[in-house]
Write a structure and sequence with these properties.
alpha+beta; Chloramphenicol Acetyltransferase; three-stranded antiparallel β-sheet; two-stranded antiparallel ribbon; 5 strands
């Protein structure tokens, strides 16, 4: 099966739930269960048959942006805190939409 990339872009959350404070960095520490597994990056690819409407990608992108506003961890980045423990930085860097 041949896959052709027509476009790609970073999708970021639409809004904040709740709004972040600008005076400190928001982080989420990983649980003990997260730390037991091996550290690796896994790309997730979802395939679907496009609907008949040609503007369906904008609806998918909008839905992804709304989901990221509720689940900000998915739009964050992995890092380490001052003690070297792995954390997720809630910086809303976005996810790749291909």
């Amino acid at each position: 099966m041949e896959v052709r990339v027509k476009s790609w872009r970073l999708v970021k959350p639409i809004d904040w739930h709740p709004p972040p404070s600008t005076d400190r960095v928001h982080i989420v520490p990983l649980t003990v269960f997260d730390k037991v597994t091996t550290n690796f990056h896994a790309a997730v690819i979802y395939l679907f048959r496009p609907p008949h409407a040609p503007t369906s990608n904008c609806h998918l992108e909008r839905g992804l942006a709304e989901a990221l506003s509720a689940y900000r961890e998915f739009a964050g980045r992995f890092a380490a805190d001052d003690d070297g423990n792995p954390v997720i930085v809630l910086n809303d860097a976005g996810v790749l939409f291909v």
